[in-house]
Design brief:
Layout lengths: L3 E4 L7 E3 L1 E4 L3 E2 L6 E4 L9 E3 L4 E2 L1 E2 L3 H6 L3 E5 L4 E5 L11 E4 L6 E5 L4 E4 L2 E5 L5 E5 L5 E3 L2 E11 L7 E3 L2 E11 L2 E6 L2 E3 L15 E6 L3 E6 L2 E3 L3 E6 L5 E4 L2 E3 L3 E5 L7 E3 L2 E5 L1 E4 L8 E3 L2 E5 L2 H13 L7 E2 L4 E3 L4 E4 L33 E6 L4 E2 L3 E8 L7 E8 L5 E5 L3 E9 L5 E8 L5 E4 L4 E4 L5 E11 L8 E7 L11 E5 L2 E19 L6 E4 L3 E7 L4 E8 L2 E9 L8 E9 L5 E3 L3 E4 L26
Parallel strand pairs: 1-13, 2-14, 8-9, 12-15, 13-16, 14-17, 15-17, 16-18, 17-19, 18-20, 19-21, 19-22, 20-23, 21-24, 22-25, 23-26, 24-27, 25-28, 26-29, 27-30, 28-31, 29-32, 30-33, 33-34, 41-47
Antiparallel strand pairs: 3-11, 4-5, 5-10, 6-7, 6-11, 9-10, 35-36, 37-42, 38-41, 39-40, 39-52, 42-45, 43-44, 43-46, 46-47, 48-49, 49-50, 49-53, 49-54, 51-52, 54-55, 54-56
Length: 629
């Protein structure tokens, strides 16, 4: 076959996409925020808002769509697609799209040898195993192509031999490159996945930048950048030579995952930053090289230590380095190396430094703003919902429970509680090329102060209980200020109080104690046959479970959520029918301030009631029947 080049005409741009924009839709009566169009996708409905970077949840009924913003449902019998926008606004107020992708479909397939695809753009190829581009012949080249919002960017079939993918850009692509072919070469590509509400979820094993899978054999990856995937590179393939050198991998759970044969292969001169496991490997075949890699920011130091022991125990990794590679400006996507980067000293025989990008002059970082985050001392504490995450390992893998981390409700503003006006505050500031010299501090509506930078600052809140917003910026020695960071400090020197009297509902089956507090807090109800009580009813905790087969266990989040409205149940057999029970309510805020109610009594007696509820029901006297839920 003679060479063939597929590209846009001179001065033109060609985009292959599999989506429809919904800019006009009919409101659904009696369903605020829900709209419909007279067309359904050919496959499972996939919808998103490009302007808000929000992917819709696919539900099974239009009633469910009414209850959940950012959701959709396709009714093929009525040829109607229902959707609920993120804020209830009409579709023309957003960039709403749905996919035309179908399972195992493709926007473009190349089955002719000696063909080059150059400069094309692929977008919105979403669906189960939907490909933007399929390569399945010998001597194919993909050059300077752009892939965006796809299930799979490039898929290489079993007839794909000696293919080359170079200088391509992948954005929000669930699976960047997946090969079952032979002798693939990837170089100077960039694969970036942002794990936000726009994330298109796939099975964990395929959440990979570049995946070489059976019956594939042989892959070379160089000068390539991968960010945000579960795994940067993964090899689970037939024997062959696999070379991964001079790449930069950041913010991936695993940098490089070796599952199968690695004889005569090479994983060296890579820069891997912010990973749980930099190189996941347990076997070392003859001729395998693993060395001169630069690692930084291990998410779990224990995993890093264990993996290092495995690698060194195989007489590899003698010149791996744990050091800050000193990127120019990661916030803006510039991962070149500053002149004093340790990665520049880790060079191969040709003098090329570790990583995908070479050095940059110091001047490249001149206008970079310093980073800044806030830390706090023990004189303040988080308030709001909090909890703990644990990991229960599967019994067939040994079992056991491990505490993972403390949990706090993710909010736009950090919130801290204090019982005194003076509070410690620590600006955690960092400037890549220079020094931090000044702090700008604003407390509520007070005048802004500019102070010499100090790692520890003390602020003084106004002498009145309430919430106060604190704003902090730092300045480097080049006169550039950081973006402001903010926190809300709540000064609270009074314990929570009951609002009104508790209301007790009794039946032969137990008691329900309902009450309100004047601020979010935790509550318990002490109860017993006398004023000595003896038993305590506590608030139920919110438990969220998530099991992943790839993790070998279950993650459990146990949340405690302060509130102002309470209904505490005390059922049989904790109390007996006909008993007179003494009760006392205790309220406690996160700062430890506590208040108690007076003693009151109730008799566990009375017929049970049946209440009917529904999404269309109303709270009103006499409601709760089947006719008026």
């Amino acid at each position: 076959y003679p060479p063939l080049v597929i590209r846009a005409a001179q001065g033109e741009t060609v985009t292959l996409f599999q989506s429809v924009r919904v800019d006009q839709a009919e409101p659904v009566p009696d369903a605020p925020g829900v709209y419909r169009v007279g067309r359904v996708p050919p496959g499972e409905p996939n919808m998103w808002e490009r302007d808000t970077r929000l992917r819709y949840v696919t539900l099974s009924t239009k009633g469910s769509v009414a209850a959940y913003p950012a959701s959709c449902f396709a009714d093929p019998d009525a040829n109607t697609l229902y959707f609920h926008t993120s804020d209830g606004q009409p579709a023309d107020k957003h960039q709403v799209f749905f996919s035309l992708g179908v399972g195992n479909g493709r926007a473009l397939g190349i089955y002719r040898p000696n063909t080059t695809v150059e400069g094309l753009r692929f977008r919105d190829c979403i669906g189960l195993r939907t490909h933007a581009l399929v390569l399945n012949a010998a001597n194919l080249t993909v050059r300077r192509c752009h892939f965006e919002n796809c299930d799979m960017g490039c898929g290489l079939g079993t007839y794909a031999t000696d293919n080359l993918i170079e200088d391509c850009d992948f954005r929000d692509v669930a699976q960047g490159i997946r090969s079952v072919g032979k002798k693939l070469t990837v170089r100077r590509c960039r694969l970036v996945k942002i794990r936000d509400r726009f994330l298109y979820r796939v099975y964990p094993a395929v959440d990979t930048g570049i995946y070489t899978y059976f019956p594939a054999s042989g892959t070379t990856i160089t000068e390539t950048f991968v960010k945000g995937y579960l795994q940067g590179f993964r090899v689970k393939a037939a024997p062959g030579k696999y070379v991964m050198r001079h790449n930069t991998i950041v913010d991936c759970h695993t940098g490089v995952s070796w599952v199968t044969d690695n004889a005569d292969s090479d994983t060296s001169f890579n820069v891997i930053v912010n990973a749980e496991d930099f190189i996941n490997i347990t076997r070392f075949d003859s001729g395998f090289t693993l060395d001169h890699n630069v690692f930084w920011w291990p998410r779990d130091p224990r995993v890093f230590q264990q993996r290092t022991e495995v690698i060194r125990g195989a007489n590899r990794g003698k010149f791996n380095v744990l050091a800050d590679p000193r990127f120019v400006n990661p916030e803006r996507g510039d991962y070149r190396l500053l002149p004093d980067s340790p990665a520049l000293a880790v060079k191969d025989a040709d003098g090329r430094p570790a990583g995908a990008f070479g050095p940059a002059p110091t001047e490249a970082a001149k206008e970079i703003a310093p980073s800044n985050a806030l830390a706090f001392e023990a004189d303040t504490m988080p308030y709001g919902a909090h909890g703990e995450e644990t990991f229960d390992r599967d019994p067939w893998l040994g079992g056991g429970t491990t505490r993972v981390r403390q949990l706090f409700k993710h909010e736009a503003l950090v919130k801290r509680l204090t019982g005194q006006r003076r509070a410690a505050l620590s600006p955690r500031a960092f400037d890549t090329p220079g020094q931090i010299v000044a702090t700008r501090l604003t407390i509520a509506d007070q005048p802004t102060q500019e102070l010499p930078y100090s790692f520890a600052q003390t602020i003084e809140l106004p002498d009145k209980d309430g919430d106060y917003r604190v704003r902090v910026q730092v300045k480097n020695d080049r006169g550039v200020w950081s973006e402001p960071v903010e926190a809300v400090f709540r000064l609270d020197r009074q314990p929570p109080q009951l609002v009104g009297e508790p209301v007790v509902t009794a039946s032969d089956h137990g008691l329900v104690v309902a009450f309100q507090s004047d601020e979010p807090c935790l509550a318990t109800v002490a109860f017993g046959p006398t004023e000595k009580y003896g038993k305590v009813a506590e608030m139920p905790k919110f438990v969220k479970r998530s099991w992943e087969s790839s993790e070998g266990g279950e993650r459990i989040e146990t949340w405690t959520i302060p509130r102002t409205d309470f209904a505490m149940a005390i059922p049989r057999p904790q109390v007996g029918t006909g008993e007179r029970i003494h009760l006392r309510v205790s309220l406690k805020d996160p700062g430890g301030l506590q208040a108690e109610s007076r003693d009151f009594t109730a008799v566990v007696q009375g017929p049970s009631r049946t209440l009917f509820v529904s999404p269309q029901g109303k709270d009103a006297p006499g409601h709760g029947t089947k006719q008026a839920p």
